[in-house]
């Protein structure tokens, strides 16, 4: 599941349950027909960085892409939803998914599924264990972080060359008792060198979420203590694809998320950004 969430963050899908909208350029311009499953697999080299002390980077060697859009129900790389087409340009959805924060604290996570068999300690994707000075406090020193389920609303707006999306999520599992939201804009264009997509997203995470995962309780962890407020995290992403055949495409993307003081002041965090990159090919099975 975590591997699917990584893909959801890296390759956004724009589709409608009532009509076949243009997909992300990362899928080589294919269109999802209502009532049909879509499955593709990307293979190549890349990684997603982990900003935590003692954390492992997540290698991206194989990335599955699984989605289904019915008349109203849809599944898109770990997100389950029910949508209403308000008009040709606007779509409202009820959505749910696993919260992504715990993945940074887990070594044995689905995001590391292929690392054990295919990635050495050093390679094209860089070290899986970050090289750094001995941290004051690492993820091995803190209590296990909870697995949470989020649910909320998603509002999409489509035009010929611009797509906007707004999300609001709430912890319905009662694990961190908080909420988070995001707003994003994406545009794509075609050139002689392939298809391009540029997107920007602003993430907001409230204090309950940040403190649950990145806070440190003084009574548990000696003299270390950290509690904070909400966090704002802007993000930029560039995706390129080039169709090779009907089913094969070359693919590359780079994503950069900036972390503010609410995150970087935590004794668990030793980087002020999260980077994801990938270069490879994709094959569309159906």
Description:
By secondary structure, this protein is mainly β. The chain has one domain (2-284): Porin. Helix content is 9%, strand content 43%. The protein has four helices and 13 strands. It has helices at 2-10, 115-118, 207-214, 261-264, and strands spanning 36-48, 58-59, 62-69, 73-76, 79-85, 90-98, 149-158, 163-171, 179-191, 194-205, 231-243, 248-258, 273-284. The protein has a twelve-stranded antiparallel barrel. β5 (79-85) and β6 form a beta hairpin. The protein is globular and about 55 Å long. The protein starts with a helix and ends with a strand. The model is unreliable at 1-29, 109-125 and 131-135 (pLDDT under 50).
Brief characterization of the structure:
This protein is mainly beta and about 290 residues long. It contains four helices and 13 strands.
